[in-house]
Specification:
Phage tail protein beta-alpha-beta fold; alpha+beta; single chain; Immunoglobulin-like; 4-stranded antiparallel β-sheet; 14 strands; 19% helix; 4 helices; 233 residues; 3 domains
Length: 233
């Protein structure tokens, strides 16, 4: 029984090897892939197994082969097509390629550094944001920061209230940044009973408190031109 099984197996292998060793010659231009696959199977004397819906989605082919092996013919035919093939004994099986389970390469990097002012002092609470995204962080009490960026081509935006913001392209894993005070002057405003307005447009009686008066008393002297309270006749 064992000898019979072995002989049958050997016979099948011999037939399979003979089919795969057949020379394939084909010349076709812009024809359906299924037609050429069937011709390869016919010349090799082996069967073809495929999914009709799968083959119907594939591009037509143009091919010129002479005395090629079955493997060479199949590799040429399926080049650039979203399918794969296996040879199982006397069968060519056309199927979808196995999914690539390899994890995509992680191109993200960590960038860290210190944010300082013109005097070299660390700026705490400065904002660091990846340009074009919402990802960001803030510097610590000494101005140090650390942030993960998607790749080395990313740019970082550094900003802090009262300073000019800067957008810098990643130059490495360590980036120290200096921010300069903004030269934009703040418009002087006063607080009135009905809101906050520019000092230049307030016409009623106002009082101001200067910074040097904060430790002492405020100047409540009415401004020139201010409206005087009316006295009863």
């Amino acid at each position: 029984m064992k000898l019979t099984t072995f002989l049958l197996f050997a016979a099948c292998m011999q037939i399979s090897a003979k089919g795969l060793s057949q020379q394939i010659s084909i010349s076709e231009r812009n024809v359906p892939l299924k037609k050429v696959l069937k011709e390869v199977a016919r010349q090799a004397g082996i069967s073809l197994v495929y999914d009709e819906n799968l083959l119907s989605r594939l591009k037509p082919v143009t091919i010129e082969l002479k005395n090629a092996t079955v493997q060479e013919a199949m590799s040429t035919l399926l080049k650039g097509q979203p399918v794969a093939y296996t040879i199982e004994g006397k069968r060519i099986v056309i199927q979808q390629p196995a999914p690539d389970n390899r994890a995509a390469a992680d191109t993200s990097i960590t960038v860290s550094g210190r944010i300082t002012n013109d005097a070299g002092e660390g700026i705490p609470g400065a904002t660091v944001r990846v340009a074009g995204t919402s990802a960001g962080t803030a510097s610590d009490l000494n101005g140090h920061y650390s942030i993960r960026v998607p790749n080395a081509n990313a740019s970082l935006i550094f900003s802090f209230l009262g300073y000019n913001s800067r957008t810098l392209k990643i130059s490495g894993g360590n980036m120290d940044v200096k921010l300069q005070l903004s030269e934009t002057e703040l418009t002087e405003t006063v607080v009135v009973g009905y809101g906050v307005q520019k000092k230049s447009v307030v016409t009623g009686a106002i009082s101001s408190v200067r910074a040097k008066d904060l430790g002492g008393h405020a100047d409540h002297t009415p401004r020139t031109g201010a409206a005087r309270p009316a006295h009863p006749a």
